[in-house]
Amino acid sequence: MTIQSARLRISTPTEPIAPGRGFYQLEEDALYVQIGAFAPQHRFFSYLESEFVSLQFDRNARLIFIEVTLPRRGWKVDNELIMPSMAELADIRWLDFREAISEPQLTTNKTQTRLHLQFTHNSPWRSFHISDNVILQTDDNDHLAAIWIDDIEDDLAGQEIAAFRKQLLRRHQSA
């Protein structure tokens, strides 16, 4: 069964904004977006996916990883693509798991450093930071409308994402 739009529970934030970053794996033609550091309480538990997009969650129903397997040459280019200017902080929990989702429309900027995943035709009502480079938008019923990923970095052989993970681990261990 394919759900049209994932349901979300949005509440007051309980933690600081998580680090997050997109890394385009050149040899795989895939985008990997890590949100937060991997830790025992922050590991894969469930997912929502379409043919080209996988959203992965931890045990607490928080988004921890996004994978886009449609090569960026297949993303629509929009030279006017602008991130939402205002986004709130929130604790966002996903209420749907292990389901197929509708294929989002993927739009990128000219330099392919930004990606907009549009999951529904409903107009976004609110925007939330789920990491420092990832913004989630909802409709007026708290259903997923879109995800924005900014500051995407080209990565060869996983070197950049590995360095990012090491940096997060050092930061987590010193905290």
Task: Outline the structure in words.
The protein is built from one helix and 17 strands. With about 180 residues, the protein is mainly β. It is globular, with a radius of gyration of 15 Å. The protein has an eight-stranded mixed beta sheet, covered by helices on one side. A seven-stranded mixed beta sheet has the order 8-12-13-16-15-14-9, with no helix packed on it. A two-stranded antiparallel ribbon has the order 2-10. The N and C termini lie far apart (about 40 Å).
Helical fraction equals: under 10%
Radius of gyration: 15 Å
Shape estimate: globular
Mean pLDDT: 91
The number of helical elements comes to 1
Which structural class fits the helix and strand makeup? mainly beta
Identify the strand order in the major beta sheet. Answer: 1-11-5-6-7-4-3-17
Any low-confidence stretches, pLDDT <50, length ≥5?
A: none
User: CA-to-CA gap between the ends?
Assistant: 42 Å
| Order of helix and strand elements from N to C terminus | EEEEEEEEEEEEEEEEEH
For the secondary structure, the number of strands is 17
Task: Note the topology.
Blueprint: E1 2-3, E2 8-11, E3 20-25, E4 30-35, E5 46-49, E6 53-57, E7 63-68, E8 76-77, E9 88-89, E10 91-94, E11 99-101, E12 105-108, E13 114-118, E14 126-131, E15 134-138, E16 144-150, E17 153-155, H1 159-174
Parallel strand pairs: 1-11, 3-17, 5-11, 8-12, 9-14
Antiparallel strand pairs: 2-10, 3-4, 4-7, 5-6, 6-7, 12-13, 13-16, 14-15, 15-16
Give me a quick take on this structure:
This protein is mainly beta. It is built from 1 helix and 17 strands.
